[in-house]
Amino acid sequence: MNVRPIKTEADYQAALAEIERLFDAAPNTPRGDLLEVLATLVEAYERQHYTIPAPDPIETIKYYMESRGLSRHDIEPYIGSRARVAEVLNRKRPLSLEMIRRLHKGLDIPADVLIQPYVAA
């Protein structure tokens, strides 16, 4: 394949097809190097043309709870009382700056996700 910048959707699809063909290429081989270059070009094209919206803060908290086996009781130190946790998770109360800080520090939830605007009930 002739390597060149990805400028159109057709170029993008051709690059994806070539990546699929090269997917099993060994690293540090000509095919492996081509795979690496194509992957870099595709990543740059996707970053420019396919934006991914930031996740919803409340859904992110719920995901972190589920993936780590945490209960509502377990996140009380980060949000507040049992009632406050229920209000936040049910979208009746917005996250405060202090809650965001504690969730970020204690659970390692990215602060830039938690500060996103979200729909309240």
From TrEMBL:
A Pfam family assignment: HTH_3
SUPFAM superfamilies on file: lambda repressor-like DNA-binding domains
Superkingdom of origin organism: Bacteria
Residues in HTH cro/C1-type domain copies: 61-114
PROSITE patterns: HTH_CROC1
Gene3D superfamilies per record: lambda repressor-like DNA-binding domains
A GO MF term: core promoter sequence-specific DNA binding
InterPro entries: Antitox_HigA, Cro/C1-type_HTH, Lambda_DNA-bd_dom_sf
Designated name of the protein: Transcriptional regulator
Species of origin: Candidatus Methylomirabilis lanthanidiphila
